[in-house]
Amino acid sequence: MREFAWHPHQGNYPGWLWTATTGSFVGYESLLERDRVLLADFDPAVVGIVSQPFWISGRDEACGEVRRRHAPDYLLSLRDGCHVVVGVKPAADDEARPPFIPARRQDSADRGRSVNASR
Predict the structure, then answer these.
(1) CA nearest 4: which of 86, 76, 98, 71?
(2) What is the dihedral of CA 49, 52, 56, 59, to 10 degrees?
(3) Does the residue 106 lie in any domain?
(4) Which domain holds residue 92?
(5) 69-100: string of b/e by CB count within 10 Å (b at 16+)?
(6) What is the pLDDT of residue 33?
(7) Which range has the worst mean pLDDT, 2-16, 48-62, 77-91?
């Protein structure tokens, strides 16, 4: 998991939320992310929640092949054995949205699914 930045007068509200789903704390970097963790915690289909579980890296062709890295906000493990990668960004904040990154849902059918959560 990526470390969260903590400093005085920052514009976001990082923290840790204890969840019944994991029996431990799950990190968040904003109040919107905290709300998404709460939704996942109350969803009976969700059996695991991991904050910023891995890095995705690649080249951004739109910016002249600039190398970029992105950590998805959450990985949700579902009761049926599937996993969902979740990106949480405010709907009005287009600049905060990462470029589309294909995410894979691993199950017996090897289907893919990516989720962007917004207000």
Answers:
(1) 71
(2) 140
(3) yes
(4) 15-117
(5) eeebbbbbbeeeebbbbbbbbeeeeeeeebee
(6) 93
(7) 2-16
Model-wide pTM > 0.70: no
Cα 26 to Cα 23: distance, rounded to the nearest angstrom: 9
Q: Which residues contact 13 (CB under 8 A, 6 or more apart)?
A: 30, 31, 34
Nearest to 103 by CA among 78, 77, 75: 75
Asked, for residue 25, whether it belongs to a domain, the answer is yes
Strand pairing class (74-78; 83-88): antiparallel
Highest mean pLDDT among 6-10, 17-21, 60-64, 103-107: 17-21
Give the DSSP letter of residue 81.
S
- Find the helix or strand (DSSP H, E) in which 40 lies: helix 31-42
Residue 82 lies in a domain: yes
Coil, strand or helix at 1: coil
